[in-house]
Amino acid sequence: MQSLYDWTLHLAADPNAVWFLAAIAFVESSFFPIPPDLLLIPMILASPQDAWFLATVATLASVAGGFLGYAIGRLAFDTIGVRILRFYGLLNKFYAMEALYRRWGVWIIIAKGMTPIPYKIVTIASGAFHFDLVRFSIASVACRALRFFLLAALLWKFGEPIRGFIEGRLTLLMTVFVVLLVGGFVAVRYLVPGKKQAPEG
Fold first, then answer.
1. What string of DSSP letters covers 31-48?
2. Element (H, E) at 93
3. Alpha carbon 105 to chain centroid, angstroms
4. Cα torsion through 85, 33, 17, 15, rounded to 10
5. How confident is the model over 65-85, as pLDDT tens digits?
6. pLDDT for 169-186, tens place per residue?
7. N or C: which end of the chain has fewer CB within 10 A?
8. Are the C-beta atoms of residues 111 and 182 closer than 8 Å to each other?
9. Is residue 132 pLDDT above 60, yes or no?
């Protein structure tokens, strides 16, 4: 795994780094273990003016790769999907999350899609559980865009000094952001009183 990590970082200095970024973002959504952040971070630090373009590339490629994961779950779960989940030791978690996924599918997609928690389990599960493709698409775009554009904004604003902080605490940062985001929606739903209807007659 360390050699794969080092190889991914090496790609950031390649003249074709944008294409590598797109490719890694694509395959990471269904089976590849290394997140595109490892390319995105040094690429933005080397060229801050391209931060938003690079975040867009990562977002679009990751969402496209998510459809591959969805197809694996929907059409080839028993052959390919099971092997991918077993390889990462996620098969038991996959079966355990089915009931929660059917109830909170969109929020699970957003939460896992924004954090380093393997997004591939979400894309494969969405297809295997026959989750609505339109809702899956909207949630995927939202979570991937929030993740990569937030990362780009931090790097564009603070530059090199924040690199070590982000790389060491990426899980914590994204988890806190998700908690605040979901908590805001819950607060609106349960704490803000609805408009009362006027009595009839």
1. T-SS-THHHHHHHHHH-G
2. helix 91-96
3. 14
4. -120
5. 999 999 999 999 999 999 998
6. 655 555 555 565 455 445
7. C
8. yes
9. yes
Model pTM above 0.85 = no
6 by DSSP, 3-state: which? helix
Single-letter code of the amino acid located at 52: W
Yes or no: say if 177 and 150 are a contact pair by the CB < 8 Å rule.
yes
Phi then psi for residue 159, to 5 deg, are 70, -150
User: pLDDT tens across 13-53, in order?
Assistant: 677 889 999 999 999 998 887 788 878 888 888 788 899 99
Q: Is the separation of the CB atoms in 108 and 77 below 8 Å?
A: no
Tokens of 183: 């908590």
* Amino acid (one-letter) located at 162: I
Tokens at residue 133, please? Answer: 């493709």
